[in-house]
Write a structure and sequence with these properties.
This protein is α+β, with helices and mostly antiparallel strands. Helix content is 35%, strand content 22%.
């Protein structure tokens, strides 16, 4: 499961320490250009690579948002975080 937080224009400037304070020391941080991926579900290296490829496909295809609204297009111009977590 993942959540996209688009309302974070300063994401590219935040340190790993910032995210570890926010999400806990167990958080794994992956940077993909202006996208910060936070993994809270302890994925394997293979799973992390799969997620990065999926995110890049969505970004390149312009499919990050299913809704093609003007506000969504504005959010697309900014850095953002994606958080993967375990769902109970």
């Amino acid at each position: 499961m993942h959540k996209i937080n688009r309302l974070n224009p300063e994401a590219k400037y935040r340190s790993d320490e910032y995210y570890k304070q926010l999400y806990g020391k167990q958080a794994l941080i992956t940077r993909l250009g202006y996208i910060t991926i936070i993994h809270l579900d302890r994925p394997s290296k293979k799973e992390i690579q799969k997620r990065k490829e999926e995110i890049m496909r969505e970004e390149i295809a312009g499919e990050t948002f299913s809704d093609n609204c003007a506000l969504c297009r504005e959010f697309d111009k900014h850095a953002f975080d994606i958080v993967y977590y375990m769902q109970d």
